Amino acid sequence: MRDGFFKAVEDLSEERDNIYILTADLGFGLFDKFRNKYPERFYDIGVAEANMIGIASGLALSGKNVYCYSIIPFLVMRAFEQIRIDIAYQNLNVKLIGAGGGFTYGLEGFTHFALEDLALMRVLPNMTVVVPCDYFEAQEFARLSYDYNSPIYIRLGRNNEPNIHQQKPNIKIGEGLILTQGNDLAIFSIGSMISVALDIHDILGKQGLWASVVNMHTLKPLDEKLIKRYSEKYKAIFTIEEHYISGGLGSAVAEVLAENSYSGIFKRFGIPLNPKKTIGNAEFRRNFYGLNAKNISDDILKVIENKNTKYGNFA
User: Fold this and answer.
1) Alpha helix (H) residue ranges in 14-105
2) Predicted TM-score of the model (pTM)
């Protein structure tokens, strides 16, 4: 995913000479081609993320199209004040590219996890927040981001994520992408959890429940029209994300449902706010917190069964 994104940026750079890439002592090998070809447009700022954001804002004020890259906690949390003041408040054309969404850097521990980033970024004024789910979406968001003249935070995984698409997808910033159509319930998911949501669709289908799965690749601006439409159609709505249970996709969808007096089943799946001390890779940690198709499917079935018992037939 990460390689696909910057491959697209490199391709754009052949035709557009105002693209600048800034990194904070990361991306060794990732930027070799760009750095060798356009040395005057590449800056390794070192372990100084706040300074990187200040430089990016200056370049943007000079008419440059700037991409800032780092591991998410160092980019988003360490330099949050600078992002807030230098970029978001001034509505500058800076692209913040964060690597390692969720538990991607599993064995590195909590210093490298990105579990609060969506909550932080979506509350900033003028900030757009997008989360590609695979290589093809990452490439397409790279292309879309070039002509996007406001600050945008793009949350990437790393590499070798499963591909959801087999070719360039037709995506638009701010519009959810419907992946499956079902009559019984809706699942809104984002980023790395899209493949899990599709597996859940298949598992529930074997139980006679058919889900609409929506890729909410844009967390902000949120596709509120789609959420409202589905709230009128479905008696059950679920969200799945590799992020803390509060502040991310689930919270954003809940806000829309609450303000539109949704009376059906709603449940969020994510990381609890009291994470346990564990050691393991990303897959181990996702399974530890139940972020897999089997656990979530079982939970959805229990919720629906309970609804049937209390209030009559769900279907």
Assistant:
1) 32-37, 49-61, 72, 80-82
2) 0.95
Separation CA 57–CA 85 (nearest Å): 10
Crossing angle of helices 135-146 and 2-13, in 10° steps, is 40
For 183, how many CA atoms within 13 A lie in the half-sphere containing its CB?
3
Q: Which two tokens stand for residue 311?
A: 């209030």
* Of the candidates 156, 117, 209, 211, the residue with the CA atom closest to the CA atom of residue 9: 156
**Backbone φ, ψ for residue 187 (5° rounding):** -125, 120
Which pLDDT does position 315 carry in this prediction? 55
Q: Is the pLDDT of residue 310 over 70?
A: no
Residues 6+ apart with CB under 8 A from 202: none
Model pLDDT for residues 179-238, shown as the tens digit of each residue: 999 999 999 999 999 999 999 999 999 999 999 999 999 999 999 999 999 999 999 999
Task: Give the DSSP letter string of 217-276.
Answer: -EEES--HHHHHHHHHH-SEEEEEEEEESSSSHHHHHHHHHHHTT--SEEEEEEE-SS--
Q: Are strands 211-215 and 177-180 parallel, antiparallel or unpaired?
A: antiparallel
The span from the CA of 307 to the CA of 210, in Å, is 17
Q: How do residues 22-63 score in pLDDT, each as one tens digit?
A: 999 998 889 999 999 999 999 999 999 999 999 999 999 999
Residues sharing a CB contact under 8 Å with residue 145, sequence separation 6 or more, in sequence order:
95, 152, 154
What tokens appear for 267 in the block?
């449940």
pLDDT at 311: 43
Give me the residue label for tokens 């500058």: 92
DSSP run (H or E) holding 44: strand 42-44
DSSP H/E element including 13: helix 2-13
Three-class secondary structure of residue 130 per DSSP:
strand
